[in-house]
Amino acid sequence: MKRKIFTSFFLMFYLFAVSQKRERIGISKEDPHSLYNFEQNESTELFYIQFIPRGKPKACLVILPGAGELVNNVIQQINLHQLAVEKDILVVFPSLNWGTTKFIEEHKFLDKVFKSVIMQYQIPKNKFIIGGLSGGGMVSLRYAERANENIKNTYIKPKAVFAIDSPLDFSHLYQQSERDIERNISEAAVNESRWLIDRYNTEFGGSPKDVPLEYIKNSIYSQSEKDGGNAKFLLNTPVIIYTEPAIQWQMLNRQRDLYDLNCTDISAMINALQIGGNKEAEIVITHNKGIRPDGTKHPHSWSIMDSDNMLNWILQKLK
After folding, report:
1. Domain span at residue 58?
2. Most exposed among 47, 130, 192, 272, judged by the fewest C-beta atoms under 10 Å?
């Protein structure tokens, strides 16, 4: 009996393995804008890893790491790419986990990836779905906004976009960082906040009070604007965002309250999109699902995304 179970498992594993092919495609030998935070033993070549279905790809799913995450680490944390490939969807993981705040250079790199994919597989430009965790979701959402604002801004126009607990309003982030520093309780929160304030002051030319229009111009969503700022460019694009407030965890580990969390802007933006007529704007609020690969509880994690449900959402939007 045990031998039969082992044989069946091996057969299933073998069939899954042969149905997928993994390739690493180089894009650039240089990384002048620090788009990817490499490990010391890695080269600085910008690349993407693609999982190729057995049949002709009918669409492309693009998955972006969070800040500082290596591509291989993301691949090990989720199985969305495995499920998507079985449905004849090409899956691409670009080496993009750092870079700039305005995302222009990130989008130029993504355009190179999309050109390479289309040249190789002739996937239609309107059959791309992009998304990611945290910063990866920010880059994806902003790419979709820029594509919708003016198609000349980008190489493709995403069919749909998804994000996992992504910050959206740079002004809100700045103010939250000021509160973290003032509280001066959580070392992790204070260090992150000091870094963010320095970065924003440099890239935007000051604080939200000094240069408010710069923050509105570059944020995915602006709570201060009646139309949501750049979020208005998502009114005709399917959007889904996962978030796990985990308020008790936040208060215990970061001394943060609801005013400080990404879920406030996420719920506000999805609400604004729905009020504006976007019937395909969704928020998924999870509870107690955030777990890091080492078993540590953390709501800002890939694990809050249900890959099976996410695949069903993707297939629905590709119809």
Report:
1. 23-169+219-317
2. 192
- pLDDT exceeding 70 applies to what percent of the chain? 92
Find all residues with CB under 8 Å of 127, minimum gap 6, and list them.
58, 59, 60, 159, 318
Q: Is residue 194 part of a domain?
A: no
Residue for token digits 């393995």?
17
Q: Quote the CA–CA distance of 200 and 215 in Å, as a whole number.
A: 9
Q: Which 8-state DSSP code applies to residue 168?
A: -
Instruction: Give the CATH number, domain containing residue 223.
Output: 3.40.50.1820
* Residue 129: inside a domain: yes
Residue 130, domain member (yes or no):
yes
In angstroms, rounded to a whole number, what is the distance separating the alpha carbons of residues 104 and 44? Answer: 20
pLDDT at site 37: 87
pTM of the predicted protein model: 0.92
- Tens-place pLDDT, residues 273-315: 999 999 999 999 999 999 999 999 999 999 999 999 999 999 9
Strand extents, DSSP E, the chain: 20-28, 46-53, 59-64, 89-94, 128-133, 160-164, 239-243, 281-285
